[in-house]
Amino acid sequence: MNEPIFLQSVFQERIWGGTKLSDLFGYAIPSEHTGECWAISAHPNGQSVVKDGPYQGMALGQLWASHPELFHSESPVFPLLIKLLDASDDLSVQVHPDDVYAGEHEQGELGKTECWYIVDAEPGASIIYGHEASSKEELARMIQDGQWDALLTRIPVKPGDFFYVPSGTIHALGRGIVVLETQQSSDTTYRVYDYDRRDKDGNLRELHLEKAIDVSTVPQAYEPIAYETQTREGITITSFVSNAFFTVEKWDVSGRAQLAARERYTLVSVIAGAGSLRIQGGEYTLRKGDHLILPAGFGSFELDGELTLITSHE
């Protein structure tokens, strides 16, 4: 199949969500507390659906299972999940398990290594990334004593920043931030601290301290990220991270750029601008907020316009 697969997103309401997914991307969101756009997802908790073309109306998980020739992957499940998150309030401080722990404790769910591209950030916005405890015992004690300011490492952020968040990293988005998140296809989160917030029924939200302490990396390990950038006619490609879970790049298109095919599929999210994608026999409009898959064997193609894309693949 030599045409892109455009997807319809799924929206998730969250206690910390807002309206920026509508304000910035023009999405029709379900409420004023919309926290997540599951843009490219085959996870059972929210599956993207093909917008048009020969597979119109098909859920991504069904497409993955019934048309493996579109992906050329050895993974038994669609391995990635692409989200846009609107943190209009602070997210809970949390940590995610790796594949082994999740497989044993979460009914075979994948672990959750993820990364964030900061799309938008209000002045003074920050994230929590890592902690200061030197042992599991100290981590448990500082959590028990509520020593959050001493325990948690806070980092200021601005639009265009990128953060790699391996499983085991204690983390949280702060208020006033919109991110594009590339992650393993998992919905397992262990909450460490939630600011004593209550849900719509007035109950304190559940924490998962035993599991969180189990899976947290102690002492905190910070992996250096060395970006690689290449510029050629019409495009600058920034390679953020490439590992066993995913490869994530930013494509800044200005004018006309020719790109070669990949053997496997590529996931594409348009986070700024507008333009077009051209292949032999077809042209497709690209707008901010579009999410699509370039299937395996897609062939060479041309991008034209003023566009910023975040792309990923296995």
UniProtKB/TrEMBL annotation:
The keyword Nucleotide-binding does not apply. It comes from the Bacteria. Keywords: Isomerase, Metal-binding, Zinc. Its EC number is 5.3.1.8. Residues 6-117 form the Phosphomannose isomerase type I catalytic domain. It is an enzyme of class 5 (isomerase). Gene3D superfamilies: Jelly Rolls. InterPro entries: Carb_Metab_Reg_Kinase/Isom, Man6P_Isoase-1, Man6P_isomerase_Firm_short, MPI_cupin_dom, PMI_typeI_cat, RmlC-like_jellyroll, RmlC_Cupin_sf. Pfam families: MPI_cupin_dom, PMI_typeI_cat. It catalyses: D-mannose 6-phosphate = D-fructose 6-phosphate. Residues 236-313 form the Mannose-6-phosphate isomerase cupin domain. Its cofactor is Zn(2+). GO terms for molecular function: mannose-6-phosphate isomerase activity. The keyword Metal-binding applies. NCBIfam families: manA. PANTHER family: FRUCTOKINASE, TRANSCRIPTIONAL REPRESSOR MPRA. Belongs to the mannose-6-phosphate isomerase type 1 family. This is Mannose-6-phosphate isomerase. It comes from Paenibacillus aurantiacus. The gene is manA.
